[in-house]
Amino acid sequence: MHPVLIKVGPLAIHTYGVLVAAGFLAGIFLAMREARRKGIDPDRIMDLGLYILAAAIIGSRLMQVAIEYRYYLAHPLEIFMIWRGGLVFYGGFIMAAAVAIWYLRRHSLPVWMVGDILAPSIALGHSIGRLGCFSAGCCYGKPADLPWAVTFTDPECLAITGVPLHPSQLYESAASFAFFLFLYAYRKRTTFVGQLFWIYVLGYSVIRFMLEFLRGDVQRGFTELAGFHVSTSQAIGLAIFITSVVMLSRLKSASRKKRKV
């Protein structure tokens, strides 16, 4: 709704960047507290968080550019204008996961335990970050005739202006926050290491798959899958959902076998 938070002369502070930064800080603070509770050095989590942040920004932007490559071929300088929005979560998640695994193995830290530590923080940070999307107008929803539909009017926003739209960014922010509350409450009730992380991945894949039906920004990449027209994020979400189910089953089975030995 308000892409620019503060503007003084040529200097502009974008709301999107401020809220993404706020989401990161809230998430890393929570993760450091949880790491301390589980006997993991909080400083390692802080360092890991910085690596994840850089990887997530690069990965999410690269996927956005890959999906909309025709546009960026015509406007190459806009590749670097991340403050205007245009970050695909799954791209960032995949690259961040790869970098995190590298970091954890390099420092001999337990991968799945750290994954459990980070899961609620990722959900919380994502919830706050989506408010940045709402401010920038990216990831906007389809036209809607509903009492809570929103109409973007700022000419600098990335959404369609003057048309009531589903506030898809707020839907995802609310769903992610509710999911964060569940994960945070459930973290002390898990029965095997890695469970919380893969529950998060599974749950988010479902949330994102459903919300894609309400998205109105059509340049998200579409493909035919088993006769259905799905977005790139939905196709990735299906693959991640299946992977999550398999990993939860494998880790649970491995935990049972370990207890029997």
- Weakly predicted, low-confidence segments: none
Percentage of helical residues?
A: 55-70%
C-alpha-based Rg, rounded: 19 Å
Strand order of the largest sheet: 1-2
Structural category is mainly alpha
- Taken in chain order, the helices and strands follow as EEHHHHHHHEEH
Mean pLDDT across residues? 87
Task: Describe the 3D structure.
The structure is a single chain. The protein is mainly alpha-helical. It has one domain. The protein is 63% helix and 7% strand. It has 8 helices and 4 strands, in the order E-E-H-H-H-H-H-H-H-E-E-H. The protein has helices at 15-37, 42-67, 69-74, 89-106, 111-136, 168-186, 195-211, 232-260; strands at residues 4-8, 11-14, 222-225, 228-231. A two-stranded antiparallel sheet has the order 1-2. Strand 3 and strand 4 (228-231) form a beta hairpin. The radius of gyration is 19 Å and the shape is globular. The mean pLDDT is 87.
Brief sketch in words of this structure:
This protein has 261 residues and is mainly alpha-helical. It has helices at residues 15-37, 42-67, 69-74, 89-106, 111-136, 168-186, 195-211, 232-260; strands at 4-8, 11-14, 222-225, 228-231. Strand 1 (4-8) and strand 2 (11-14) form a beta hairpin.
From the structure above, extract its key features.
single chain, 261 residues, mainly alpha, two-stranded antiparallel ribbon, two-stranded antiparallel sheet, 4 strands, 63% helix
